[in-house]
Design goal:
By secondary structure, this protein is of the alpha+beta class. It has one domain: Cytochrome p450. The chain is 53% helix and 10% strand. The protein is built from 15 helices and twelve strands. The strands form four sheets. The chain has a five-stranded mixed β-sheet, with helices on one face. It has a three-stranded antiparallel β-sheet with strand order 4-12-9. A two-stranded antiparallel sheet has the order 6-7.
Length: 394
């Protein structure tokens, strides 16, 4: 382990709300070893930005890491030429150009269909997380991955099982078993789709990777990666950003009027409550940084959720402000491992899901004051439910 100061944490409290603990770490021990996580945490934005780009030391290649063990080695767990080779194949299918040319129109169609099901009447009540955000994210992910032979509920269940599995640092056997079951199911679904996709190539990630000649095991690993992050982040951002706007009516008024864009509200939400709050790294060689000596093969957590509330870059970082300059935020990471799906997420959530939700549902409001909404997670974070009502009030 590193010689960083030791800081003990209550993992249950971190799951409930990591931000007070992360704020203390930034102020007192910005690089610290947390025994409960078995990792050294980096919590300052500039430290994380610098170290994430230094892949020769802070390596994504983690042979014994939970993601590799549970999901197979994907491009997120490769560095250097290996990473560039797979990203070169994968990225064009979801690049900003491809998103605008192909996927945004499909997101629009999907949102209309989901809203027709979610809100069939002019007056109603439902949970945004389950009824709208989960369906919107899952149906979009089905067409992008090419796994059109499943339901969005299956996509969401697999995603949750995998992100729980790769964050299972306590080694809970039930969590591990659920992750294995999810990855086995995804393998079977891909095997079922391969003949059809090969016979009728399309724009999907499955089709593009198969056409490139990528080995099937690598295709499967990258599809699992896409599902694990590509479902929960947009899902949590849709429901969470809607809640943020409903509890900040001044911000909602600015979005409706065009004073700020819906994409800006999405970007600020992802800074304020980061759907992806952490990314793990392995120390590839002995190294000193920030007065701390790191040992080879130890585990480091880059705490994106902390970086995005760093007081050195954001005034009153605990405040939701859609007019804020979020350019320093690390919601999608940095360096060679910058999230390949960032453009798709911005389009799905900021250009389609949020504006359509508020345009289609008149008088949308929380069915309480918003105080009872529970969020959960520190590695991945989002609202567990967002109950809303719409239409006339009695």
């Amino acid at each position: 382990m590193s010689d960083a100061p030791v800081v003990n944490v209550d993992l249950a409290k971190m799951w409930d709300d990591p931000y007070p603990t992360l704020a203390r770490m930034r102020a007192e021990t910005p690089i610290c070893f947390v025994p409960e996580m078995g990792a050294t945490l980096l919590t300052k934005r500039d430290d994380i930005h610098a170290c994430e780009k230094n892949v020769a030391i802070f390596s994504s290649d983690q042979p014994g890491g939970l993601m590799n063990v549970l999901m197979g080695k994907n491009m997120m767990r490769r560095d250097g030429e290996e990473h560039r080779r797979e990203r070169f194949v994968y990225y064009p299918a979801i690049s900003p150009r491809k998103v605008q040319a192909t996927w945004t129109a499909q997101f629009d169609t999907i949102a209309d269909a989901v809203l027709d099901e979610f809100a069939p009447g002019e007056v109603g009540a439902a949970d945004l997380v389950r009824g709208y955000a989960t369906a919107m994210s899952g149906e979009s992910l089905k067409v992008m991955t090419g796994l059109t032979n499943v339901t969005y509920q299956e996509i969401d269940g697999w995603s949750q099982a995998m992100i729980d599995g790769v964050a299972n640092y306590g080694g809970d056997p039930e969590t591990e078993a659920k992750c294995h079951a999810a990855t086995t199911a995804i393998d079977a679904v891909i095997d079922d789709r391969v003949p059809s996709v090969q016979a009728n190539p399309d724009h999907s990630l499955l089709s593009v990777m198969l056409e490139s000649g990528m080995p099937l095991n690598d295709v499967k690993a990258n599809i699992k990666l896409t599902i694990s992050g590509g479902q929960n982040e947009p899902r949590d951002a849709i429901a969470g950003a809607a809640w943020a706007l409903l509890t900040h009516p001044d911000q909602l008024a600015m979005a409706r009027s065009g004073e700020v864009s819906w994409v800006q509200t999405f970007e600020e939400y992802c800074r304020w409550i980061s759907p992806i709050g952490m990314s793990p790294r392995r120390i590839a060689a002995e190294h000193e940084f920030g007065g701390v000596r790191f040992e080879t093969d130890e585990r480091v957590f880059l705490m994106f959720g902390s970086a995005n509330r760093d007081e050195a870059h954001f005034v009153e970082p605990e405040r939701f402000d859609a007019q804020r300059d979020t350019s320093a935020a690390l919601a999608f990471g940095a360096g060679p491992h910058f999230c390949a799906g960032a453009a798709a997420s911005r389009a799905m959530v900021g250009e389609v899901a949020l504006p359509k939700l508020f345009a289609r549902l008149p008088n949308l409001r929380l069915d309480n004051a918003g105080e009872d909404i529970q969020f959960g997670g520190w590695a991945f974070r989002g609202p567990l439910q967002t109950p809303v009502q719409w239409g006339q009030t009695s």
